[in-house]
Amino acid sequence: MQLELEGCGRRAVLAAFDAPSTTSDAGVLLLRAAANRLAIWDQVAECFDDHRDPERIDHTVAELVAQRVLGIGFGYEDLTDHAFLRDDRALAVAINKVDPSGQDRRRSCDLGHALASPATLNRLENTPAALDAKRPDLKLVHHPERFEALFVDLFLDAHEAPPEQIILDFDATDDPIHGRQEGAFFHGYYDRYCYLPLYVFCGDFPLVAKLRTADRDGASGALEEAQRLVGHIRRRWPDTRILLRADSGFARDALMAWCEDTPGVDFLFGLARNSRLKAMVKVDLDAAREESKATGKPARRLRELVYETLKSWTRPRRVVAKAEVLVDRDNPRFVVTSLPLDEVPTERVYCELYCARGDMENRIKEQQLGLFADRTSAHRIRTNQLRLWFSTLACVVINEVRRIGLAGTDYARATALTVRARLLKIGALVRVSCRRVKLSISQAFPLQSLFVTALARLAPEYPLRATR
Questions:
Q1: For residues 271 and 316, what is the distance between their CA atoms, to the nearest angstrom?
Q2: What is the C-alpha end-to-end distance of the chain, expressed in Å?
Q3: What is the pTM of this model?
Q4: pLDDT at 441 over 70
Q5: What is the CATH architecture of 145-370?
């Protein structure tokens, strides 16, 4: 089909979708280098048991996962997108396909299609908990416990030496339900039917992305996840101090008591306001209110408290109160912590440590908005959990591009959406011969120097050199 558009001077302007062997995603070279650096695809493949006949398959589990995850990284959230992506030779190169042009396929109907079809990827996502004789087409089985351990191992492997302290940020969010899906419950706070996934990040590294039904407390399962994470981390980093940080929804006695009873583990949680806490900072609020009236600006006071609930806590705990008055209203806030006062002073507890928790919410937003973590529209929870993990794997790969390739640049803290728009979505002509694959990228690409620098950092074992 050829499109005739408004002319340019005396020249006619025509357009057609007929350019052979081109890609709009030449920046996949960066994701390829990052994924190869992490050796991530083989590790993910170990989370599956493959019961397929090796003599009758064209795509390994590692290749299938790589195709799906990199597709998410480039903004293709639906399996139907792969009806066209399966012909993208740049993507085939990115997942290390030996035959990027698809000329060695076993069936004639697949010739020219280097990558897997949407139907094949659908079978990957719908892996059962065990083989089912009624579904002979589903011969892959994934193991959730292996996926959960994988994200922690990827985090640990990214560090050359154990840090003195790490902060694990816990948070829950909503994931809207799309119809009558398994595990659909209404959540009053979010005012809709949704899932209630639990996330744990350490800085930019995702450690937990656990899909849960919404018929529970937001902190449900947090203690078990904390025990698993700390145990896993301790096996590699026995001396690293670990701080658990979260909002007031996680200030539960069982979780706090476990931290207090576990050597080298502390917590810093928000604490919901109540009349008793407000009464304890009334003097500070009055003083802040007078200052605010005098200056016309917000004012605040910080105070140390020892607080214990009437019934739900088993022991008194250190509470840091922020008695703040905005220009038009009072805004008292409270946090509870096991950090000792002689080691961590009041100002640092609230202003430096707790306020930094807000970045965790940015990480969740990035994964949902940029990497489609809420694209959990399958019927079964098991399938949706796997989709969430695929999104999280895309987050790991893009984070490696930022952490290593873009360190010290203006894009070191860029969101996944920005990285995709500026460095991944690049048009190129792909030429495949018996000796090489060449991507001819547009000369007008404005970030050539940054792209080359990032690629060299991600794959230093392959020094870049000019060739004809």
A1: 14
A2: 35
A3: 0.93
A4: yes
A5: Alpha-Beta Complex (3.90)
